[in-house]
């Protein structure tokens, strides 16, 4: 495309001019800066009012543009543009008509048709009978080639699918941006309401998480009193109100370990145990970090489906908060709002179940 | 020409007659009068009386009992087991029985009878057998035992897409039959023929059979034609299929077998009037396929990483990595080698031998891929393996045992031609699904394997085309059209090809041939065209060669043509680029790369005559001995063709100042359509004539100050556009030598047209001045 910039604005006058010039030219091949005397034809065809001085200036500028070496990028762009132009033009439309096309027409080819067997039994190949069959033949057996195969130039080492993946991401980003813009358009009042609700929900979530932590600590204290043991235990044995907390923590720990193993690079080979070295003893294995026994064992049922927990998690935040508060009261006679463990069942002195009651 | 073919036909008919008699006589011998025959010792002095001694056998053979096209597998096996070779009468060697044992284990062996039954029942047969089934070596032999070509005088031909395959398979089959290569079993490839009067089974390239058909339109020399590796869909195979389809209708005695290694054989069946199909399972194991979760940023990098990962973590087994070209392969080999050294030191990994494999690699280096994988570094250490980094020649044509892991980035270099810019180029392109499956299959040859595809499953499904485009859709058809014309195909438009090419490609081919004066305006073959088709060369080269005596330099043009028909003779190793370039400068001619080639060739011939060690000389001068000697061989073959067609061999005396000018002018007689003009003075950019493409001169040129006009041998399209192997020319020559093409009126408006106009006027003025004087 950049080629257009460097060409004279109107190539036609130059053409004629050169022919003009040719008549007076004696063996010189240069046409970069023609003498200003050859004015007659050009001025009449294009610009009536261009003075000889202006013309001379213009021509010099054009010549300079032509002789200036193109930058690599310009050149590459122009090369590509020319190739693409040439590749996108069917040869059948080019002028003058090719003799090749005439020969093919004599064999019974019509523009727009494909090559290949006729459906009717082939007549003896006298050219007159071929000429009669003007209709493009309907062909048995799928699509016929009408156009040459496109040339795609690959100039990098991108893997297959990278280009389309990139395009997909751009599309998605555009869609997301559109979505955001739509939301911004929603009314201002609605916006305030939404913000309030979102803030409230976030607060509930935070309080719920706090409640879970308290519940876990309380349970731990109680258990220590009972048995004096710590350690992982089946998730199912944990009350649903704070089971989610434990599960999330264990999952995070497992992910961290897996990533660690992976980042050890080729040590990841251990994930695909292959070679058994008979000379390797227990100590070697420990030293090489090959021992499969890690200190940390996750709960057995970590990956199992837990419908109870899923249902619980699906509840709105305020409901989950209410449940954990109730759980603390029931189990440990602890009021989440008073932050106090009452000595008896009655919980005397606590104003009520909800936060508002404690205001 | 016509007379000689007639003669040929008559003589073969006579021989047929003789053979019939002969077979009768042999049969009566079998009935019990063998003694009489034994007494009748062949007298070497009376050989001219016994004309058929050459064709028939004068020894007893189990084949005497055979009825042509009625044999059974059991009969053939019995003959194979006999102590004496049924084809030569000599005793079988020990080696023969050893090979025979392995042959009996091949998957096709089990279906020999089934094959024969089907073969007897039909004229055209489609045979599908995966690589490793033994079809290429065995099926032609099964046919041999059934067709009994020594009785009919009609040979069996088996085509191969590649020269190397034709040669190596012929050698293998000669061993299997316990005969000398070139006698009962031979091969014929371009510029090399190893067959003799005794030849019964002939392996040949598909292109070679096509060339033969130009003189023998009915392919009357053959009783059975086997097209092997038809799934590769080479240009010549496609044309042969279309021809054979026509011939089969006329010659009911001709049998045709289409052999394919892939499952799309149905297409062949449909094409050949629903021919029956026989499939033989290959010996393959399941291959597990892995995809990457994300597309790769750099497929070479990803490939190297994957190879190392496999080496670190997967059990014993060799690795095959597919990349696209020499440079990329050497780069990957180096990187893998370095990393493996680290892994051995740091991780106690096993050793790994890394071998490159590509077409231009010297044969002895290609052979290294068959070396055994290295042993473990110490006793009890991790076992070693080998890693082969290859172009797609390892996809179908080469079988390497022991491959268990395949790494497939999904690219290959493919030839592509577009008639709109007239550029034929090798471009890196995504492979097809069929190709990807073929690559994966390479992992399952010895035991269950794994294939790592360096693209996502989604990309495999959505971005890869189903089948690789057949070559006919990706080629310049000028040569093919010329061949077809010579083959007597009148109606090219309705020629029944399996995949007809784009109409524009055909139009361009006809147009080019017309400019070259090989076809007249009615599309009829001219005398020049007919002669050009006799040369196994592109039409432009052939025309240049035929017209060279007019420029008093046919010897030189013959040398240049031969040099252009072989791979690059210049060697430029990465380690000694500078020295190589200096050496090339010794041969440099300031006016052109063509002339430089010629200088190098003359120096090579000079070294040969002066009793030097030529190989050493070539090595010192960074020239490829292999390619120079094959150019020498090509020259000899072409010279013979020139002599039979009375193309005179002449030279301008070297002292004459026009020696090189004449050669430069002669180049234009063939290559006037490959000319570029400088865009503007001082610019490095050229514009190709008529196609108007911007090109640079390839940096490998020796021409230090190129003219405004150059002729080029090759248009190279990579990420840039180059013209390679150029020679300076004067535009006046164009108007003089190719006035039809350089008819100023036919040019579109632009710089080239105005430049040509100027030159025309100049020439005219000069002539007027001369006339006036």
UniProtKB/TrEMBL annotation, chain A:
- Any Pfam family hit: DUF4187
Q: Where is this region: Disordered?
A: 1-99, 112-232, 271-290
What Gene Ontology terms describe what this protein does at the molecular function level?
Answer: nucleic acid binding
List, as start-end ranges, the regions of compositional bias called Acidic residues. 14-26
| Polar residues: bias regions | 86-97
Q: Which domain of life is it from?
A: Eukaryota
Cite the PROSITE patterns for this sequence. Answer: G_PATCH
Q: Which GO terms describe its cellular component?
A: kinetochore
Q: Where is the composition biased (Basic and acidic residues)?
A: 60-85, 147-166, 179-204
The UniProt record lists the G-patch domain at: 96-165
Positions with biased composition (Low complexity): 119-138
Name of this chain's protein: G-patch domain-containing protein
Q: Origin organism of this chain?
A: Chaetomidium leptoderma
UniProtKB/TrEMBL annotation, chain B:
Q: List residues of the Helicase ATP-binding domain.
A: 116-281
**What reaction does this catalyse?**
ATP + H2O = ADP + phosphate + H(+)
Tell me if Repressor is a UniProt keyword of this record.
no
Q: Where is the composition biased (Basic and acidic residues)?
A: 11-25
Source organism superkingdom: Eukaryota
- What EC number(s) are associated with this protein in UniProt? 3.6.4.13
For region Disordered, the annotated ranges are 1-92
Which keywords fit this entry according to its UniProt record? Answer: ATP-binding, Helicase, Hydrolase, mRNA processing, mRNA splicing, Nucleotide-binding
The keyword NAD appears for this protein: no
Occurrences of domain Helicase C-terminal (ranges): 306-488
Record-level GO BP terms: spliceosomal complex disassembly
Recorded GO CC terms? post-mRNA release spliceosomal complex
**MF terms (GO), sorted A to Z:** ATP binding; hydrolase activity; RNA binding; RNA helicase activity
What Pfam families does the entry give? DEAD, HA2_C, Helicase_C, OB_NTP_bind, WHD_HA2
Q: Which family does it belong to?
A: Belongs to the DEAD box helicase family. DEAH subfamily. DDX15/PRP43 sub-subfamily.
Q: Which PANTHER family match?
A: ATP-DEPENDENT RNA HELICASE, ATP-DEPENDENT RNA HELICASE DHX15 HOMOLOG
Biological function: Pre-mRNA processing factor involved in disassembly of spliceosomes after the release of mature mRNA.
Q: What is this protein called?
A: RNA helicase
What organism is this sequence from? Chaetomidium leptoderma
């Amino acid at each position: 495309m950049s080629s257009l910039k460097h060409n004279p604005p109107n190539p036609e006058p130059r053409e004629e001019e050169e022919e003009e010039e040719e008549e007076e030219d004696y063996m010189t091949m240069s046409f970069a800066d023609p003498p200003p005397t050859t004015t007659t034809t050009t001025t009449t065809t294009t610009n009536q009012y261009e003075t000889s001085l202006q013309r001379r200036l213009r021509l010099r500028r054009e010549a300079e543009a032509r002789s200036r070496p193109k930058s690599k990028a310009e050149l590459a762009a122009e090369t590509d543009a020319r190739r693409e132009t040439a590749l996108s033009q069917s040869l059948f439309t080019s002028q003058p008509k090719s003799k090749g096309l005439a020969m093919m027409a004599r064999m019974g080819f019509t523009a727009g048709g494909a090559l290949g067997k006729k459906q009717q039994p082939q007549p003896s190949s006298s050219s007159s009978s071929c000429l009669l069959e003007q209709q493009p033949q309907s062909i048995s057996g799928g699509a016929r080639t009408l156009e040459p195969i496109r040339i795609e130039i690959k100039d990098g080492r991108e893997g297959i699918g990278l280009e389309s993946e990139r395009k997909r991401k751009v599309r998605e980003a555009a869609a997301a941006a559109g979505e955001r813009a739509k939301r911004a358009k929603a009314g201002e009042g609605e916006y305030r309401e939404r913000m309030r609700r979102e803030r409230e929900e976030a607060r509930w979530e935070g309080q719920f998480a706090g409640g879970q932590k308290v519940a876990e600590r309380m349970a731990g204290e109680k258990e220590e009193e009972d048995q004096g043991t710590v350690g992982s235990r089946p998730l199912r044995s944990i009350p649903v109100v704070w089971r989610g907390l434990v599960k999330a923590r264990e999952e995070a720990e497992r992910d961290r370990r897996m990533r660690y193993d992976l980042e050890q690079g080729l040590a990841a080979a251990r994930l695909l145990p292959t070679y058994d070295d008979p000379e390797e003893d227990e100590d070697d294995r420990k030293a090489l970090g090959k021992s499969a026994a890690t200190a940390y064992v996750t709960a057995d049922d970590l990956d199992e489906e837990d419908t109870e927990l899923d249902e619980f998690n699906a509840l709105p935040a305020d409901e989950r908060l209410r449940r954990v508060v109730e759980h603390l009261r029931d189990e440990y006679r602890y009021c989440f709002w008073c932050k106090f463990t009452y000595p008896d069942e009655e919980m005397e002195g606590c104003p009520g179940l909800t936060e508002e009651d404690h205001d | 020409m016509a007379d000689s073919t007639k003669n040929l036909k008559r003589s073969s008919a006579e021989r047929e007659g003789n053979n019939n008699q002969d077979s009768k006589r042999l049969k009566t011998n079998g009935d019990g009068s063998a003694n009489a025959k034994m007494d009748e010792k062949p007298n070497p002095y009376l050989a001219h009386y016994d004309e058929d001694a050459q064709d028939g056998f004068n020894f007893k053979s189990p084949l005497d009992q055979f009825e042509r096209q009625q044999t059974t597998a059991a009969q053939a096996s019995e003959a194979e087991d006999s102590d004496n070779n049924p084809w030569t009468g000599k005793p079988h060697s020990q080696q023969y029985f050893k090979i025979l044992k392995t042959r009996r284990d091949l998957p096709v062996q089990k279906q020999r009878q089934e094959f024969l039954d089907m073969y007897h029942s039909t004229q055209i047969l489609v045979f599908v057998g995966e690589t490793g089934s033994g079809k290429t070596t065995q099926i032609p032999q099964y046919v041999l035992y059934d067709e009994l070509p020594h009785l009919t005088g009609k040979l069996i031909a088996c085509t191969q897409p590649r020269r190397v395959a034709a040669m190596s398979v012929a050698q293998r089959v000669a061993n299997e039959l316990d005969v000398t290569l070139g006698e009962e079993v031979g091969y014929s490839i371009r510029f090399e023929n190893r067959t003799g009067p005794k030849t019964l089974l002939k392996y040949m390239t598909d292109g070679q059979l096509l060339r033969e058909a130009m003189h023998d339109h009915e392919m009357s020399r053959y009783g059975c034609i086997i097209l092997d590796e038809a799934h590769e869909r080479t240009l010549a195979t496609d044309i042969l299929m279309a021809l054979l389809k026509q011939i089969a209708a006329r010659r009911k005695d001709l049998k045709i077998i289409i052999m394919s290694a892939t499952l799309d054989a149905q297409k062949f069946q449909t094409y050949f009037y629903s021919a029956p199909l026989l499939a033989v399972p290959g010996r393959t194991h399941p291959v597990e396929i892995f995809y990457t979760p994300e597309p790769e940023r750099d497929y070479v990098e990803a490939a190297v990483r994957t190879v190392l990962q496999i080496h670190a973590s997967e059990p014993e087994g060799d690795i095959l990595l597919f990349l696209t070209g020499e440079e990329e392969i050497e780069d990957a080999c180096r990187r893998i080698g370095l990393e493996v050294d680290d892994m051995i030191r740091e991780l106690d990994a096993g050793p790994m031998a890394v071998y490159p494999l590509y077409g231009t690699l010297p044969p002895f280096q290609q052979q290294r891929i068959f070396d055994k994988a290295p042993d473990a570094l110490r006793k009890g250490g991790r076992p070693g393996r080998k890693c082969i980094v290859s172009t797609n020649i390892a996809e179908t044509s080469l079988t390497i045992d022991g491959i268990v892991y395949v790494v497939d980035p999904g690219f290959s270099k493919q030839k592509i031609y577009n008639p709109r810019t007239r550029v034929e180029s090798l471009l890196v392109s995504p492979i097809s699904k069929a190709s990807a499956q073929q690559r994966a299959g390479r992992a399952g040859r010895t035991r269950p394997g794994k294939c790592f595809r360096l693209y996502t499953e989604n990309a495999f499904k959505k971005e890869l085309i189903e089948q690789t485009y057949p070559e006919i859709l990706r080629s310049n058809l000028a040569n093919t059209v010329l061949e077809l014309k010579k083959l007597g195909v009148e109606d090219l438009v309705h020629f029944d090809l399996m995949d007809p090419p784009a109409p524009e490609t055909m139009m361009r081919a006809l147009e080019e041939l017309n400019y070259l004066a090989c076809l007249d305006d009615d599309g009829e073959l001219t005398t020049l065209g007919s002669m050009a088709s006799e040369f196994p060369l592109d039409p432009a080269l052939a025309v240049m060669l035929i017209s060279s005596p007019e420029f008093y330099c046919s010897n030189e043009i013959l040398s240049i043509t031969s040099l252009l028909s072989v791979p690059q003779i210049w060697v430029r190793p990465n380690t000694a680029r500078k020295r190589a370039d200096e050496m090339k400068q010794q041969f440099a001619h300031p006016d052109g790369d063509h002339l430089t080639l010629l200088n190098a060739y003359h120096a090579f011939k000079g070294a040969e005559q002066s009793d030097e060690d030529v190989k050493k000389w070539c090595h010192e001068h960074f020239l490829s001995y292999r390619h120079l000697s094959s150019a020498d061989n090509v020259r000899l073959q072409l010279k013979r063709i020139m002599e039979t067609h009375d193309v005179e061999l002449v030279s301008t005396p070297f002292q004459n100042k026009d020696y090189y000018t004449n050669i430069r002018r002669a180049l234009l007689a063939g290559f006037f359509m490959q000319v570029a003009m400088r865009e503007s003075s001082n610019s490095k950019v050229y514009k190709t004539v008529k196609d108007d493409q911007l090109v640079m001169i390839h940096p490998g040129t020796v021409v230090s100050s190129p003219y405004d006009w150059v002729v080029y041998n090759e248009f190279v399209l990579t990420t840039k556009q180059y013209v390679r192997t150029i020679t300076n020319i004067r535009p006046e020559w164009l108007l003089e030598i190719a006035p039809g093409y350089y008819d100023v009126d036919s040019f579109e408006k632009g710089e080239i047209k105005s430049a040509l106009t100027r030159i025309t006027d100049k020439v005219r003025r000069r002539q007027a001045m001369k006339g006036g004087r």
